[in-house]
Amino acid sequence: MPTFYFDVHDQDGVVSIEQPFDFADVGDAIAEAKTVLTEIAHDGPPGSDRPLEVHVRDEAHVTRVVVRLRFDLCFCNHDGTMPS
Fold it and tell me: If you average pLDDT over residues 32-53, what whole number do you get?
């Protein structure tokens, strides 16, 4: 089984989780990264404009995938449409 590592990027900075995680493939590692983001988001939206991210690293510690959750605030036009 391939080994993966996660780096969590949030409003407080970066936390590198050096504990290895074994998953059947990168798809399973991405699913776990999505779960981690969901748990972080459950604690409330970020206090800054930085998106929440989980970087998925492979056995060589090279980032292979970034899973990002971003909160956007968009003001609509007077007619309710989105500005272009």
Answer: 80
